[in-house]
Amino acid sequence: EAQVTQNPRYLITVTGKKLTVTCSQNMNHEYMSWYRQDPGLGLRQIYYSMNVEVTDKGDVPEGYKVSRKEKRNFPLILESPSPNQTSLYFCASSPALLPNQPQHFGDGTRLSIL
Amino acid sequence: GDSVTQMEGPVTLSEEAFLTINCTYTATGYPSLFWYVQYPGEGLQLLLKATKADDKGSNKGFEATYRKETTSFHLEKGSVQVSDSAVYFCALSDQTDSWGKFQFGAGTQVVVTP
Fold first, then answer.
1. Which residues of chain A does B107 touch, with a Cβ-Cβ cutoff of 8 Å?
2. CB B108 within 8 A of CB B24
3. What is the DSSP string of B47-75?
4. Which of A45, A97, A103 sits opposite B46 (nearest CB)?
5. N or C, fewer C-beta in 10 Å, chain A?
6. What is the pLDDT of residues B3-61, one digit of tens each?
7. Is B83 helix (H, G, I), strand (E, B) or coil?
8. How far apart, in Å, are the Cα atoms of A42 and each of A3, A35, A52, B29, B89?
9. Omega of the bond prior to B10 within 30 degrees of 0, cis?
10. Is B42 in Cβ contact with A42 (below 8 Å)?
11. Candidate from B42, B93, B102 with C-beta closest to A107
12. B102 vs A: CB within 8 A
C-alpha cells in the first residue's frame, strides 16, 4: 500500500531534549516536505526537499533541522525543543514538483513540549 | 509573499444543503491552486486542483473554479452529506516564484448535521 509513515504518532517530552520525528514514503517520490498545523494558522511549511541531498527552508524553519540522505526518508530534527514547538506535524511527499501532482500526507505526529 | 485567505469556520449545515467556502489568494507569479480535506485524526487528502486561470477542478461533487480576475478559488458542493464533515484547506503553489513552497489557508471546519 502506498503510504507516508510518520513516527512517533504522539510524543510528550521536555524542553531541550533532542528529538527526531521520522518520515518514510514507499512511493519513490522525489519531493518531500514537513508542515506544522496550529489552530487558526492552518499548515505552515517548515522544510522541503526536491530530491536526495537537496533541502530548502519553508516559512517557519527556525528551531528545526532536516536531512535527505535517502530518497524514502526525510527526518525532522528538533535539536533543543521549546514549548512553542508544541504542534501537530505532517510529512508529505509527491512524485515530482509539478502542478498536477498531489501531495500525499502522513497521519501526523502530535508533539507536546513541556 | 504569497498567501491564502479562507473563510473562518465552523460552518454548520443540514444534510442536502449547499456549501460554499470562500478562498482568495495573493501570488506574484502564476500559482496552482488546491483544495485539501482533512477528516478527524487523519492527514490531508487532495480534493481537487486547478493549474491555470479558468480551470475548474471537480471531485466527489465538489467544484472550484480558478478566477484570476478576482484571485479566488471558492469551493462549492450542491448537496452535502454527513460524511462531508471535515476541515477543508485551500492551498497554492507558485511554481514560477518559489519552486517547492506551498501556502495553506487556516482551514474551514464544516459540520453537516442529519
1. 42-43
2. no
3. EEEE-STT-EEEETTEEEE-BTTTTB--E
4. A103
5. N
6. 899 988 899 999 999 999 999 999 888 889 999 999 988 889 999 999 889 999 999 99
7. helix
8. 23, 10, 28, 22, 8
9. yes
10. no
11. B42
12. yes
In the block, residue with C-alpha cell 526537499: A49
CB pairs under 8 A between A and B: 64
Q: Using CA atoms, how far apart are residues B76 and B65, in angstroms rounded to an integer?
A: 9
pLDDT digits (tens, 9 = 90+) for A3-57: 999 999 999 999 999 999 999 999 999 999 999 999 888 899 999 999 999 999 9
Among A105, A107, A110, the strongest candidate for a mutation testing the B interface, having the largest count of B CBs within 10 A, is: A105
* Chain A CB within 8 Å of residue B93 CB: yes
Give residues with Cβ within 8 angstroms of B36, minimum separation 6: B44, B45, B46, B47, B88, B89, B91, B104
Angstrom CA distances, A77 to A6, A56, B26, B107, stand at 13, 14, 31, 26
Peptide bond into A8 cis (omega under 30): yes
DSSP secondary structure code for residue A102 in this structure? P
